[in-house]
Known about the structure:
This protein is of the alpha/beta class. It has one domain (5-267): Divalent-metal-dependent TIM barrel enzymes (TIM Barrel), CATH 3.20.20. Helix content is 49%, strand content 14%. The chain has helices at residues 17-27, 36-42, 44-54, 71-91, 108-129, 151-161, 169-172, 178-185, 217-226, 240-245, 247-267; strands spanning 5-8, 31-33, 57-58, 61-65, 95-99, 132-135, 164-168, 189-194, 233-235. It has a nine-stranded parallel sheet. Helix 1 (17-27) runs parallel beside helix 3 (44-54) and helix 6 (151-161) runs parallel beside helix 8 (178-185). The chain is globular and about 45 Å long.
Amino acid sequence: MHADISINALSFAPARLDKLADQVARIGAQAISPDLEQVLAFGATATALLFRDTGLETAALTHRAFAFATRNDVAAAHERLDRTIDIAIEIGARSIVLTTGGRGSCGWADATDRFAEAIAPCAAKSLTAGIALGVEPTSHLYADVSIAHRLSDTVQIARKADIAVVIDLFACWFDADIEAAIAEAAPLASLVQVSDYIYGDRGLPCRAVPGDGAVPLARLIPAIVDAGYGGYFDLEIIGPRLRAEGEEMGLRRAGDLIGALIEQARAN
């Protein structure tokens, strides 16, 4: 599998992290992106040893939401994200993936200001640690945990907060300005998350194996590479379609396709 492909552990059915790491290694990927709760359940020190023994790099650690709507939210969010940064250091993660947290009753512009102010101490800590703190776009159905839905909006938030961008193509491939947004986002990106969408799917999670659906990956992956991105492309394929095919088979197929698109883009 291409060296720039990582596999997000959320792609698999729930299991102990050692089993998931074995699956990733067996598929042939060189990097894994675990979820914070998976690491906490297994233990950070044990996770670091596990990834060392299996030869896996840690592309990213998924933190989920940073709540900022109230003063109490911010205090708890600082404590939780500080802990995540410490864990990321221990397991050798290159980046942390998060959503912004919900806006509460704030308008969007005010919410972006509040988020940037609230996350500033953690952004400084992650910068000192050499770990990219990246915010991802997500569906409006997750408005309770995010104010970032379009990629261009995510770039605006990231710039205001002086953090990185995670390009989750499942959440933004249909943006009207996606090509322009990619050109802005790629130089700021710490991770690209890849999956596909099949027309007619209505209930989340409904991600498909890349190449099976409507996402124009043959256009978007080269655009990301051409805009200067050189990091991991993380296979984050959540939902029943991958289960039905078989996780290892589907992820190998996804890795082959995305790896070929990366190489074609770099050859041109």
